[in-house]
Specification:
2 copies of one chain form a homodimer.
Chain A: E1 2-6, E2 28-31, E3 37-39, H1 40-51, E4 56-62, H2 66-73, E5 78-82, H3 88-101, E6 110-115, E7 118-120, H4 122-137, E8 142-147, E9 157-161, E10 167-174, H5 179-187, E11 191-200, H6 201-212, H7 217-222, H8 232-235, E12 243-248, E13 252-254, H9 258-263, E14 269-270, E15 273-275, E16 280-286, E17 292-295, E18 298-305, E19 308-313, H10 321-325, E20 333-336, E21 339-346, E22 350-357, E23 365-367, E24 372-379, E25 381-386, E26 389-394, E27 398-401, E28 407-411, E29 415-422, E30 432-434
Parallel strand pairs in A: 1-4, 1-6, 4-5, 8-12, 14-16, 15-17, 16-18
Antiparallel strand pairs in A: 2-3, 6-11, 7-13, 8-11, 9-10, 9-11, 10-12, 18-19, 20-21, 21-22, 22-29, 23-30, 24-27, 24-29, 25-26, 25-28
Helix pairs in contact in A: 3-6
Chain lengths: ~450, ~450
């Protein structure tokens, strides 16, 4: 099975764990068999591999997520990087061209497209295989998954099938309705449109040529910013007469709010937390290294990260966006291609961060105009380059770098540094990159 | 007026702001006229000075609070340091001997004793003056303040006066009763015993000689650990026939729990916090530098400090002790005689802290057996001594110190350091102190 996972943008609906640079699909919230935790991306990736060990998985996403994907899934996963955010049709066209031109997948081979973050069981991925097989059969140009509704939701679009058979032609699509209208749809056998579908690769290449003027990967990539913002549903699905829907009746959840996310937690707390016996329906997700104590709460979610602390009634937590949109703050934690950093202290003219580099990885060779930096190595071994001078470093070594000096560090083993930045107007934008000499 | 403020022990009932080394009276929670915040100790000190600018204030406390007292009240305040914790009679005897032997106060002068943390208005301190004057008159050996009860509390002892006059002889004392018994006391005109009283200095010196075998300050200090653990009420007040009570009907609150403490806050939030309009009766005290967002909560207190995060129903917050007693953790913040430190990062074999030194202050000259240290100066100017070598330091300077090397730093201006500690089994107990040479 060739599968394209659409990894959507960042958002603040799960603040403080998600923010401008960290998306909800990377939050490690699901307990694994070995007692650790995995993210939605990791869970879905593992589930696909369980159902189809040979599946070829490609993630369609923006540049900002590449580091997090490699950190969580390793370097083996295929990534189709969108140079900027367009709508779903350009993203799917680019990913399909990537499969064809880069991964050399044939035009007759089926491709399944699916969001990266459904909270589902293995039967969902079995259904993806059937979707793939149905697309390969050529009975229709496009095969959708229709999810049997469990309530008249206003959050999803609806698919009206011709029949109630497991496989049916699509009669028509309906936009997100109000609850009353949704009830009527459901009475007529409508299904939720979960944004999951399959096609033979050549079909979307033809659509790309027709609608975007090209199906060449490099060309689409180069012109990406100029491509029209159109959705796959609007541009392709709703205009396609040869279209089928496969009915799915298994568990399917969209974990987009704290309320739905905490329902999926197998334990009431993740991280250091204590709940008194007087707490009812309370969930805590704590990424800080100090304890959270909860007493006498009911239907509340508490979440703490280096970005901040949320304490909310679960139902009302979906209204978080306007509140956190008012917060303008320093990014306190970020995953990078080489590892991660966390802000420890913000001074008037200083910033202290903890840097963790993955073995074998290095920062860009770079300099800063307006700040000096000091590295204090607290664990691991690595190789530092400062203005072309190369030297090995280990625990206890201190490297001082004046503003303007070019520097990088490569980790041999996992390497941790306390980096002290000193200067006025310290900013992440004050960075000049260079090719490493020699 | 000579006043002795009893500054009680540390406790965890206001965790995470109070803990084993930080007492509630030092939490800065009361808004001042200039928009800043002051602690209970600072508020009481300021109130006394407002009522009696010439008041001589002595704080009776343990060694662990001396730094915090100097940091908050300056170096001018008198402190009677208890070498260890005994009960109130040894503490009051020692403080009284301190007033006599160290501060040279005469035996006929009145002394008022009062807890350091009542939440009261200026009329309370006017009453302390009257208590002092009444003691000076010599009508009785001991003059108590009796607080008019507002409800049949089980938390306080009761004083039964002979009459309902503003000044009356004491008929008898009653231990903390149950609510039903308390109702009966109140019907008979009983008053709460708030632990406030006045006497002529010589009176307690005589009691000390009688009960502790000495009234000499140095002698009491040296033998302090061997003194009996007896309360002033039991040892003195309840045995004294010449005793009066002055009735106080003003506002008097004991801010010992989060519930009562938040009642005294003039704003719902201190520190970075956002409350949604759906919050009712919610208070936030945030000492961290990241925002707390609250949504849809009712009757809840949220408090965050470097030690941890509390989210509690206000009524139930009084049951916090057993919960936080189960927490065994690194002290994350502490006030020292020279300033303060805060833990920024706890690694496997490293600890990173931020050190702030007050101008003119220095650490002890010391060394560590099992760890190296690195100082990164991030603001201010100072003088570092390492193994006898003295050098000035300023922003950007880095000092590395191997295990065993003797070191200290003195602040010229306020000085901030990032201190990186490296070694196995890092502990605050690994410290050897030395006299500074030269």
């Amino acid at each position: 099975m060739n599968i394209v996972l659409l990894s959507g943008g960042s958002g603040r609906r799960l603040w403080p764990l998600s923010n401008d640079i960290r998306s909800k699909q990377f939050i490690k919230i699901f307990e694994t068999a070995d007692g650790g935790y995995e993210s939605m991306v990791q869970r879905v990736y593992r589930q696909i591999k369980t159902v189809d060990a040979g599946a070829s998985i490609t993630i369609a996403t923006s540049k900002t997520q590449v580091s997090a994907i490699h950190n969580q899934l390793g370097d083996g996963v295929g990534i189709s990087v969108e140079p900027c955010r367009r709508d779903t049709f350009p993203a799917i066209a680019l990913a399909t061209a990537y499969l064809h031109d880069v991964q050399k997948i044939g035009e007759d081979e089926p491709v399944v497209v699916c969001p990266v973050d459904p909270y589902v069981e293995d039967d969902y991925f079995q259904m993806l295989k059937r979707l793939s097989e149905q697309a390969e059969s050529g009975e229709a140009n496009l095969v959708l998954m229709g999810i049997e509704p469990t309530y008249p939701s206003e959050k999803y679009g609806y698919i009206l099938p011709e029949s109630t058979q497991p496989i049916s032609s699509v009669h028509t699509f309906r936009e997100k309705p109000d609850a009353e209208t949704a009830k009527g749809y459901i009475a007529r056998g409508a299904l939720w449109n979960g944004g999951v579908f399959a096609y033979r690769l050549g079909y979307v290449l033809r659509k790309a040529r027709e609608l975007l003027g090209s199906c060449d990967y490099d060309d689409l990539f180069d012109r990406y910013e100029a491509l029209p913002k159109i959705s796959f549903d609007y541009a392709v699905a709703e205009a396609e007469p040869k279209i089928q829907v496969l009915r799915f009746g298994g568990q399917w959840k969209d974990l987009g709010t704290w309320n739905t996310l905490t329902e999926a937690m197998s334990t009431p707390t993740i991280g250091e937390a204590m709940l008194s016996s007087s707490c009812e329906n309370v969930h805590v997700v704590n990424e800080l290294n100090v304890p959270i104590v909860c007493m006498g709460l009911r239907d509340v979610v508490v979440s703490a990260s280096p970005e901040g602390i949320l304490v909310s009634d679960k139902e009302l937590s979906s209204g978080i966006k306007p509140m956190v949109d008012a917060i303008r703050q320093q990014i306190m934690f970020a995953e990078k291609s080489w590892g991660s950093f966390r802000v420890l202290d913000v001074g008037a003219d200083s910033l202290t961060i903890k840097v963790t580099l993955r073995p074998g990885h290095a920062m860009n060779y770079h300099s800063h105009e307006k700040r000096d930096e000091i590295w204090n190595v607290i664990s691991g071994e690595g190789i530092v380059t400062v203005d072309g001078m190369v030297q090995p470093v280990t625990v206890g070594d201190v490297i001082t770098m004046q503003a303007g000096c070019r520097h990088t560090v490569e980790a041999i083993t996992e390497l941790q540094l306390i980096e002290v930045q000193l200067g006025k107007d310290i900013s992440v934008h004050d960075k000049q990159k260079y090719a490493l000499e020699g």
